[in-house]
Design brief:
This protein has a domain of 143 residues. The N terminus is likely disordered. Strands 1, 2, 3, 4, 5, 6, 7, 8, 11, 12, 13, 15 and 16 form a 13-stranded mixed β-sheet that branches. A three-stranded antiparallel β-sheet has the order 9-10-14, with no helix packed on it. By secondary structure, it is mainly β. Strand 5 and strand 6 form a beta hairpin.
C-alpha cells in the first residue's frame, strides 16, 4: 500500500532541479553531463554541542546517489552581535564546530568558501517549543494495522511557527522531512501524527523525534523538496528548490531551537 511518506535522495532531486530549471524555451537535455552542484546541509541548534556542516557535490543523472564529499573548504558561522564559530573538517565533507550553544532570537550567518567561491546564508533562530510527549497509535488502514507515532506539543499563540520533525528509528534517520506549520493550530495543543514506512514500525523499534523550530525560508525549501519527491502529495515537475544559500548552492542552513523525546514501539 502506498503510504504518505516516500523515500527520496537529495542528490537526485538536486540533479533533477538543475536539469529542469524554470525556463520556457525548449532545451536539449544531456542527462550524462550534468554540471556538479554544491550541496550544503547545516543546522545550528540551542544545544551546547559540536554542530556539523556537511558539504557534497551532486552527481551525473546516470550515477548512483552516494554523496561526493567536498574537502578543503572553509566554514564559519557568525552570531549577530556575537562570536564567530569556526568549523574544522573531521572526515571528508563533514565539518565540526567547537562546542557552542545557539541563542533563540539571534540571527546567524554561515559562510562557506570552496575553491575560492564564497557561499552564504542567514537564519534567525526561533524560540523553542518543547515536546510534551510521544504516543503510539495503532490505526486501521483498509484492514491493515499500522503503528503511528504522535508528537504532542503546545504551539505558542500569536507567533507564526514552522516545525521540522527529524525522525530516527533504531538510531537510523528517516530521509523524509516531516514538516508542520501553525497555520491552523496557532496557540493550540497540537497532536501531530507521523506516518512511517519503508520499513513500517514493528514492536521493539525505538523511535526518537527531534522537534526543531525553523524559520520561514527553511520551511519553504524543505516543503518544496517534499513536493518534488512526492512526500507531500503527488510528485510535482522537478524544479530547483529555493535554497537560502546564494551563488547557486543547494541545501539549506537552519538556526533551530531543539527538543527531543523517544519511545519504544509495543
Amino acid at each position: 500500500m502506498n503510504k504518505l511518506s516516500i523515500k527520496y535522495s537529495l542528490t537526485i532531486i538536486a540533479v533533477f532541479g538543475f536539469l529542469f530549471s524554470s525556463c520556457e524555451k525548449v532545451v536539449d537535455l544531456n542527462l550524462d553531463q550534468t554540471e556538479p552542484k554544491l550541496v550544503i546541509e547545516a543546522i545550528l541548534t540551542d544545544l551546547d554541542v559540536r554542530h556539523i556542516v556537511s558539504l557534497s557535490n551532486t552527481k551525473n543523472f546516470d550515477e548512483d546517489n552516494t554523496k561526493v564529499p567536498v574537502t578543503g573548504a572553509s566554514v564559519s558561522i557568525k552570531e549577530e552581535n556575537g562570536p564567530t564559530i569556526t568549523y574544522t573538517e573531521q572526515t571528508p565533507g563533514n565539518y565540526l564546530s567547537t562546542r557552542y550553544k545557539g541563542v533563540p532570537g539571534k540571527k546567524y550567518e554561515i559562510t562557506v568558501v570552496v575553491k575560492g567561491v564564497t557561499y552564504s546564508a542567514s537564519s534567525v533562530m526561533p524560540m523553542p517549543v518543547r515536546i510534551k510527549s510521544l504516543n503510539q497509535l495503532d490505526l486501521d488502514f483498509f484492514g491493515e494495522l499500522n503503528k503511528i507515532v504522535q508528537v504532542n506539543y503546545n504551539d505558542p499563540a500569536g507567533i507564526t511557527n514552522y516545525y521540522y520533525n527529524r525522525v530516527f528509528v533504531n538510531n537510523l534517520k528517516r530521509d523524509r522531512f516531516y514538516l508542520e506549520s501553525d497555520r491552523f493550530n496557532d496557540g493550540r495543543e497540537v497532536k501531530n501524527n507521523i506516518f512511517l514506512d519503508d520499513p513500517e514500525l514493528v514492536a521493539g523499534d525505538k523511535v526518537k523525534v527531534q522537534l526543531l523550530t525553523i524559520d520561514a525560508n527553511v520551511y519553504k525549501y524543505l516543503f518544496s523538496i517534499n513536493q518534488i519527491s512526492g512526500s507531500g502529495g503527488p510528485p510535482t515537475t522537478p524544479a530547483n528548490p529555493e535554497s537560502n544559500f546564494n551563488n547557486g548552492a543547494l541545501g539549506f542552513f537552519s538556526a533551530s531551537s531543539f527538543s527531543v523525546d523517544s519511545l519504544v514501539i509495543k
